[in-house]
Design brief:
alpha+beta; 4 helices; globular
Length: 78
Amino acid sequence: MGTPDSPEVPAGAVDGRRLAASIVHWARDAAEACAIVAEVAKAHEVDEVVKVKSMATAEIELNERLAEHGIAAWETDL
């Protein structure tokens, strides 16, 4: 994925998510992606998260990075 203006992002994808009351975060690499997730969890003062089990989060070692911040990640495939 690229920046909001890059050709890799389907036209209207970001605007559609904004309309659905979602917030889109952009990360340049795995470290930044994990940091963003940790920051969001900390902003909500949580020490546990439930997340989808995926190859993408496994590849960036999200669970391990969250654990470094004292955040337990529970996975589901639902």
